[in-house]
Amino acid sequence: MSAKILALDTATENCSVALLVDEKVYVRSEVAPRDHTKKILPMVDEVLKEAGLALTDLDALAFGRGPGSFTGVRIGIGIAQGLAFGADLPMIGVSTLEAMAQGCFRLNKAEHVACAIDARMSEVYWGRFVRQQDGTWLQFDEEQVVRPALLAENSQTDEHVWATAGTGWDAYSEELSGLKFKRESSDVLFPDAEDIVHIAKFELEKGNTVDVEDASPTYLRDTVAWKKLPGRE
């Protein structure tokens, strides 16, 4: 299936944009934890210009739905909604944890990935993923926010070696050292729109899109209020 999908993500310190046009991907990515609002739209303009396309030429707009920084997730989904609303595009939310798993496969061919993002407050955003033969990812552990020591205490051994991705591994290395399954480190610290757009292509093929007003974040912590577009609560 040919597709034209724009993806963006600001859920962590990394700010990234990717444009998929059939099999070609145009990317921009920069670790800029305090400059997402300044950098994301120029990145969008750059990839569209490079591909010679306008927003209205696209089939869908994908975004990193979280988990991640509350502010970063809000920035990303708000900008994505604004772009999609103006161009009348369906939206696709992609887990930032799953995107890191795809990043591990893209860079290291890892097919079993354990993702941990530093969630502050002595917790991590956690999820494990297994790559399927068709290129999609199966969620092995439910995505959750959890204390690393509790995660280690409740872990079990298995026959796989899990590639580790995310900032949580360095932030809580002592606590996570108690995990009972085998691990190998990777260079993937953050989700990237290049991987989000890859996952979004599968979701578009399945028809898994939402209207702009129904696009929502995944915080995992349930104490954060979210407001959709003005007038669309």
Automatic annotation (TrEMBL):
<keyword id="KW-0808">Transferase</keyword>
<dbReference type="GO" id="GO:0061711">
    <property type="term" value="F:tRNA N(6)-L-threonylcarbamoyladenine synthase activity"/>
</dbReference>
<dbReference type="Pfam" id="PF00814">
    <property type="entry name" value="TsaD"/>
</dbReference>
<keyword id="KW-0012">Acyltransferase</keyword>
<dbReference type="InterPro" id="IPR043129">
    <property type="entry name" value="ATPase_NBD"/>
</dbReference>
<protein>
    <recommendedName>
        <fullName>tRNA threonylcarbamoyladenosine biosynthesis protein TsaB</fullName>
    </recommendedName>
</protein>
<feature type="domain" description="Gcp-like">
    <location>
        <begin position="30"/>
        <end position="152"/>
    </location>
</feature>
<comment type="similarity">
    <text>Belongs to the KAE1 / TsaD family. TsaB subfamily.</text>
</comment>
<dbReference type="InterPro" id="IPR022496">
    <property type="entry name" value="T6A_TsaB"/>
</dbReference>
<dbReference type="InterPro" id="IPR000905">
    <property type="entry name" value="Gcp-like_dom"/>
</dbReference>
